[in-house]
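in:
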């Protein structure tokens, strides 16, 4: 088979990181091809951030209807069609998929449909089926691996009956009762989406709390909010088996408890998608199931780079995008740069929403000692919940370094937390002190004014 070798860069994977890198490299004048075996857009656009957030809005719309009487609105009968919501979400995903195809064309990036794998460090083969026969061989001066990750599920009897997050976006109907397994981002977000859409949700958590790694007090505030809206959160429980037929399942716990339900979502983490990539053939080193890269996203092979979830650094879309662009700027542009993985803001789109930037109280104490940090907090029911007289309370929290007065952690649980923390991240990134926060005039009435009025 003749090897086509006309490219400066071949990108494997058209998700957040791959698309950003391909377009930026093309803008710098490189001849670029991008290989994608599934739909252009990747996890974020097709089966992650975007359809998830649209479903979050769908669940919120239903909560707002519940609040209507508190504002003097008497609603007649409300017809709810979850099928219609899912149909509209999928239509929006289709629209964005087309948009991304157009962006690639406009950028002059060659699109290659199929699954790529390294045949050597100088050549990539393209197959219609992942791991199937090679139809085309391509080579380039540089390669970028941006193939993302895949959900992982524990190996227990009946696991084939369960859903992963990808499956949730293809549902037509929702069962009355769903069991969600896990305590991370996806478990908390989907537990709230499903609850908002009227499903009875039981969340099974093997540890003693939700959202390990986040500030404990914030994670507990989310737990309280989840329970308040009727999600049954079972802590320190492990699922040992799932049995039954589609739509009529039983989740068996190791302590003997059995939960009947119509569906089970396993939200038990994700892992880089390395199988069938031919990394051995290329000599690319893999460590603990992830591609090992340096600060320039370079793998153990000098002309092969990797960005995004496949490197398992920080698995978020904006990070994958910045890593992809930094690689392209450094390799094909005139201003080399590296990504700063410190001080990343992140959010969990649960209900209540959690958002955070900087160190948790626990991490700050680990680093600076108990006397090295001062904690300021405000816990209250926001004005938007005054008339309905229900709903979660907000928690706003500042972690301040005693010796410098610098705000080293800024955290929030409550309405618009992600929007608020995105802005606070600028101040924290600039090294703002508690005195800077205090000097800022409050904007009243707002939720975030509490950040500048905490004694
Ligand atoms: C349910 C869910 C919700 C999420 N919500 C958020 C959120 O709100 N905010 C946020 O920041 N992040 C969120 N994330 C994480 C975010 O989606 C990922 O961090 C991001 O998509 C990673 O980008 P990537 O480029 O590394 O990989 P991906 O976006 O996964 O793209 C990889 C692409 O490579 C393709 N591919 C794989 N192997 C090959 C091959 N051999 N040849 C060709 N193509 C290949 C895949 O088909 C895929 O299209 C969410 C993830 C999930 C699952
Ligand atoms: N809002 C966002 O930014 C967002 C949303 C979704 C996903 N993401 C990204 O995707 C990544 C993956 O999300 P995720 O929620 O799948 O992973 P996660 O790592 O956040 O959570 C996995 C959860 O599964 C639990 N778990 C693992 N194995 C288990 C087992 N055998 N039995 C029971 N529980 C088990 C873990 O204790 C943990 O609570 C996140 O880390 C994040 O980077 C981000």
């Amino acid at each position: 088979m003749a090897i086509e070798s006309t490219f400066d860069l071949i990108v494997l994977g058209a998700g957040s990181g791959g698309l950003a890198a391909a377009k930026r490299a093309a803008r710098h004048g490189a001849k670029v091809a991008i290989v994608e075996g599934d739909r252009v857009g990747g996890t974020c656009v097709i089966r992650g951030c975007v359809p998830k957030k649209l479903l979050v809005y769908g669940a919120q719309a239903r909560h707002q209807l519940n609040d209507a009487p508190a504002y003097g609105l008497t609603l007649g009968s409300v017809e709810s069609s979850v099928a219609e919501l899912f149909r509209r979400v999928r239509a929006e995903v289709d629209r964005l998929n087309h948009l991304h195809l157009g962006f690639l064309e406009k950028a002059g990036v060659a699109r290659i449909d199929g699954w790529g794998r390294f045949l050597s460090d100088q050549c990539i083969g393209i197959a219609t089926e992942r791991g199937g026969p090679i139809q085309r061989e391509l080579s380039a001066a540089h390669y970028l691996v941006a193939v993302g990750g895949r959900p992982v599920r524990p190996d227990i009897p009946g696991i084939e009956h369960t859903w992963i997050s990808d499956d949730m976006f293809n549902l037509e109907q929702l069962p009355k009762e769903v069991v969600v397994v896990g305590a991370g981002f996806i478990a908390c977000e989907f537990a709230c989406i499903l609850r908002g859409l009227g499903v009875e949700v039981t969340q099974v958590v093997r540890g003693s709390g939700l959202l390990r790694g986040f500030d404990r007090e914030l994670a507990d505030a989310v737990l309280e909010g989840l329970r308040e809206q009727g999600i049954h959160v079972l802590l320190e429980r492990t699922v040992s088996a799932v049995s039954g037929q589609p739509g009529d399942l039983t989740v068996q716990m190791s302590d003997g408890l059995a939960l009947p339900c119509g569906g089970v979502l396993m939200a038990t983490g994700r892992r880089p998608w390395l199988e069938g990539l031919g990394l051995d053939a290329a000599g690319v080193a893999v460590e603990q199931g992830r591609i090992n890269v340096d600060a320039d996203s370079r793998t153990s092979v000098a002309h092969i780079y990797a960005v995004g979830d496949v490197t398992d650094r920080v698995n978020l879309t904006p990070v994958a995008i910045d890593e992809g662009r930094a690689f392209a700027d450094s390799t094909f542009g005139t201003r080399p740069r590296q990504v700063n993985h410190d001080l990343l803001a992140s959010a969990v789109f649960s209900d209540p929403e959690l958002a955070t930037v900087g160190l948790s109280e626990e991490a700050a104490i680990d680093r600076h000692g108990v006397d090295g940090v001062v904690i300021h907090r405000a816990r209250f029911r926001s004005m938007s919940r005054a008339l309905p007289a229900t709903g979660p309370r907000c928690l706003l929290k500042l972690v301040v370094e005693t010796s410098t007065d610098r705000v080293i952690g800024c955290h929030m649980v409550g309405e618009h937390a992600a929007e608020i923390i995105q802005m606070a991240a600028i101040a924290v990134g600039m090294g703002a002190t508690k005195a800077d926060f205090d000097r800022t005039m409050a904007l009243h009435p707002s939720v975030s004014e509490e950040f500048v009025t905490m004694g």
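note: Residues 200 and 360 are 32 Å apart (CA to CA).
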